[in-house]
Specification:
Layout lengths: L5 E7 L5 H15 L4 E8 L2 H13 L3 H13 L2 H4 L4 E2 L2 E2 L1
Parallel strand pairs: 1-2
Antiparallel strand pairs: 3-4
Length: 92
């Protein structure tokens, strides 16, 4: 018997903060109970804007600003994500 695979893509606002990332993990865990799942994750919400501004900053020689923007963009969700663990393919 052939099993179909469910492909789920998350990005933008669906990965915009820790709460939404946890929600995506829960959705994947639930879907995985029904059939095999492939998850595709693109950029978190706001990252495209940060990339564009970083490019403008880099053109002006403000490399430190670029690094700081990326750090600030990604620091917020990290502590809350400690609660989300993927161990052996299972969501805890």
């Amino acid at each position: 018997m052939r099993r179909t695979i469910a492909i789920h893509k998350f990005g933008g606002t669906s990965l915009g903060d820790a709460t939404r990332i946890r929600n995506a993990a829960r959705l994947l865990a639930a879907a995985r109970r029904r059939r095999p799942v492939v998850a595709v994750a693109s950029a978190m919400g706001g990252v495209t804007d940060v990339l564009l501004q970083a490019a403008r900053d880099a053109e002006r020689g403000r490399i430190g600003s670029c690094v700081l923007r990326f750090q600030n963009q990604h620091r917020q969700p990290i502590p809350a994500l400690d609660e989300v663990a993927v161990i052996g393919g299972k969501y805890n």
